[in-house]
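step=predict obj=TonB-dependent receptor n=895
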Amino acid sequence: MKLYISRIILGVFLLSIQCIFAQNLSKNQFKVKGNCEMCKERIENTAKKAGAKTATYSIDSQTLIIETDNNASSDEILKKIAEAGHDNEKFKASAETYEDLPGCCHYDRNLQPQTIDNHENHAKKENEFYVKGNCESCKARIEKAAKDAGADSAEWNAERQIVTINFDSNKTSSDKILKKIAEVGHDNEKYKSRDNTYKNLPSCCLYDREIPFGEANPKVHTEEGNPSEHTDHNDHNTAGENHGSHEKNIEGVTVNGSKAATSLNKKEAGLIFNIDKKELLKAACCNLSESFETNATVDVSFSNAVTGTKQLKMLGLDQKYTSLTKELLPEIRGLASAYGLNFIPGRWIESIQLTKGGSTVTNGYESITGQINTELLKNAEKPETSLNLFSDFNGRAEANITSVSPINKKWSQTFLLHGNGTFGDTDMNDDGFLDRPKGTQLNAAYLLNYNDLENSGLGSHFGINFIKDERTSGQIGFDKKMSQEKQSLYGVGIDISRFQVWNKTGYVFKGKPYQSLGWMNQYTFHQQDSFFGLRNYSGKQQTYYSNLIFESILGNTNHKYKAGASFMYDGYDETYLTSTIKRNEIVPGAFAEYTLTGLKYTLVAGARVDFHNLAGTQFTPRLNFKYDFTPQTILRLSAGRGFRTANIFAESQQYFASSRSIQVLQNGGNIYGLRPEIAWNYGASLQQEFKLFGRKSTVVADFFRTDFQDQVMVDLDRSPQQLTFYNLEGKSFANSFQTQWDFIPFKNFEVRLAYKYYDVQADYLDGRREVPFMAKHRGFVNFAYSTNKNSKGGFWSFDTTLNAVGKQRLPNTSSNPAEFQLPSYSESYAVLNAQISRNFNKKIRAYLGGENLTSYYQKNAIVDVKNPFGNYFDGGMVYAPIMKANFYVGLDVTF
């Protein structure tokens, strides 16, 4: 009996001890980086060995919840976890320990924990509490609420998402203060705001409620100064979710922050991709035409067999229907249409923003299938000069020098210099014609930037650019110095001079960060002198463009608007054979755009009216709508109208190296006797994110339809000896479907898969036909892998891209003799490109690559190649590569 009573007393005693300890346990949550189940086990076991009573780690939220008693320090536990290889919010693992982890445990080290030496200054203290917010308006609201609740002082830090409060405990408490902060709309670690209160916050203040406390807010600048989402009321026309072209930005006047990678902007109503310079390094990317080799959206047509030109296609239509801008200013249009892609060197590019479907009306009326905007290098916290040397194995060489440097806190400048030359005779199919032109290009630019937006509200950007490009092609041995009439060999000569000067200036109104005024101006002079055998073509173009944009809000930042006026002058002076064609296009215009932002949706509705002296008054409405079913499921809808005037000679030069005569069937229009081109574009896309192998995976499916109300038809089918232009009588449409899947199966290995379907048809004079040189089916595969960086910042990169192209309808050549007839459809084929690069450290990089490694090429790229002055000669029937496999090497050095 005594033994029984003793056991009861002992049990009660032990139970009491457990209760006492349980009452002294405290539960805390911390950010800890990990990747897989092995990480989870390692983190939890380490925490328990370091003194935690319980430890639960979540891979999805990257958080560790621990229970400790008075004998265990959370700091010591987190220190031990870091020593085991896992970065956390207070301690960072050593590089050696991290590298020793199994490959599956190599998490992304984008959480920047404080080191052991300095964590005392940054660890969360007793008077610090997690409070969610985005911007300066949030900061003012949070701090005011804290003081209203009795705090003596309050300071909210957006980067850390923490409010620091000081108060007299006899007058108030942290609970009362945090409750008051929640009442004004800001979730915190103790109280959650009511849904209605949260929804009534201005749109700029609508933070992501699903991000765990302690995790960085992607809408706020990181400690390194790299914004990862819209950070400010004045961010506009930026692209790239998490890695976008983020800038302190007045509409059209940008002062950029640093960027990284390629991504789809989740916040924009339109379908906008940002392609960063890091993506461009995955391929040769010598100029803009080669900048889309690892991008599935844009199709690059292969070089013409005689002129060496490349053209872009988007949504199944030629590049002339895509607005191609530089620094948001009109760039590749008019006489520059044929060769302008060669005038923006790849090493000059800081980022490319690609918009599918109708773009904003503030950028003009010419966009029908979308917009491709190129931003030049102009950002550096410290002086940086880079040298790039490039050469392929067939006589092409390039050199680029870029120098970006701050002059002082407000001024910075950029020097850009590019030179290239093609010196070798490349004739891989032994037909006696060069597969690409020989010649040289000298290209120089200077940019000057002023940024005082934070103080005076003023920012400005100035640029000047000069280009001299000279090319010779045709039969091997042709002497450009002699006139064509004096030699039997067929030759092509193309000499281009181009000069541009531009300025963008903006002002942010004092005390009104949502209100700004921007003014853009640009002058362009472009001259081309060329001949194609006995056919001569020359032209001059002078363009002046001006755009004034005012932006503000209606009531609050949920309702934004832009309004402004633009002016475009194009002066053309062209000579074809013996005919001289001159015209001046004068286009004043006005526009307005309204943006409505809700909790789950964004609506952008705009319209512009342009008073074209030759095309008449044109009304251009555009609409973009985005709805977030969840943060991972996004629907977008778009519709819009665009118009343009066709430059039939400049845009069709790939057909000049042929026996085709040009015929224009005029109908009373004022541009070459033709009416302007007008089209409607409609689109829908669905973006879905999900986890695969514990990593982010994204699928995007989109469908776009373009319906032409009027179009200038380029008819190659009426006769193999004719190139006929006339206005559309009937229907012309392009259906485009694309699905793309991006995922990371394991660390440092990126996969991009895409499939595209095009249905492009038009009513020609003799009936409806598929538009030639457009494959219905296309497949795309891209693999990119890089090794971990070593202590010097060195690593290897491997990239390969496969493009599968289905059969294409070819122009009708049935009236030619049998030996000069083309089949109705081309063959299907695939092209493989690959590159290996080695970063020896942060300053030196070497690369080796190959293009068209499958060596598929069009064997008879030129019709009747032996008789270039005969009736059947045609160098424009190109549907595939005309060169076999080509290899290149390059070197990048940063000083």
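step=describe
The chain has eight helices and 43 strands.
step=end
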